[in-house]
Amino acid sequence: MMKAVLLLITCVLFSAVLAFSDRLERDSPDEKFVLAAADGGMLEVMLGKLATKRATSAECKAFGKMMVDDHTKVNDELKALAGKKQVMVPTKLSNVKQQMYDSLAAQSGEQFDMLYMNMMIASHEETIGLFQTESNDGQDPDFKKWADTKIPALKHHLEKAKALFPTKPAGSSGK
Hints:
Layout: H1 2-26, H2 29-54, H3 58-84, H4 95-105, H5 109-137, H6 141-164
Helix pairs in contact: 2-3, 2-4, 2-5, 3-6, 5-6
């Protein structure tokens, strides 16, 4: 009886090791890119939706709508490409991205607008780096090409976000 239990435990542990080692092999740089790109893309859409409802400035609301429209399209493209490659795309935000969303959702007024635009600048700088790395160093030619085609739009978003970010506190005279 004891030998049977030990054999069963050994088999379970061995199966777990095999499953884990298989997961390590599947987490190629391209798959890590897909996971990070999907996580960031979902965040862009969720923050954009929040901005369309909560931002105080019309420009900030319009930027939020652009993020929802553009990143929804890109997210759908990524899901389709990943599906062809049998790469799973997350359906909910990572803990880090969820915390970013929650911190913005807790803001209101001009503070909301400022934090949202600051997040958009930081997020797009990070995303451009992610996509450039995949474009240059990725192993899968389809993911590399796809990432490369998205960089100009991401740079455009970054430029627009920087143009909208308040450079001086409200009410300052600029002297």
